Amino acid sequence: MEFSELINIVEVLLFITDRPLSSRRLKDVVGEDATEDEIRAAVAELSKRLADSSSPLEIRDVAGGWQFATRADYSAWVKKLYRDKTRLKLSQSALETLSIIAYRQPITRLEIERVRGIESGGVTETLLERKLIKIVGRKETLGRPLLYGTTQEFLKYFGLKHLSELPTIEDFSPPEESSAVSTSDDSEPEGDIPADDAPAEETAG
Q: The domain containing residue 151 runs over which residues?
């Protein structure tokens, strides 16, 4: 297959999909006509062409794959077109539960509730329905409870390529303030005056 034809095929596939496509998924579609390295090269060339032509579209690397997206400069116009379709919004309890799962996965519902301090069955079901989390197995303990983890949709929702891009605890910690007080070298020491430097006592005449 000619490289130019491969670029066209990749462009069509990325254009029609509603979810990120990985090089492996694109390879499944293209078959033996191209390798994954050639597909990655085609994506890179397509991305370069879009940038060079000042296109309002770009290819984003998100959730382990590629997807067409609108450049930020044109997002306001897209919002006007879809003003009635609001982005999926999460409640505070859903965000709290989702963050616990993201940082501690795989995790059971009981472990989630121990961290939150309240029952979390309802919010967990909501996150499952919205495909932000999934059941990843069972914990080998009494009762073999279900284990939960995040999904590709979670990465896509937050614009992440991998879970490793999640902010660390240190990112949320305020900088430590130095409590040390600097003193000049010529400052006078506190305390009693040394005996040699003390004024002599007057003797009674």
A: 92-165
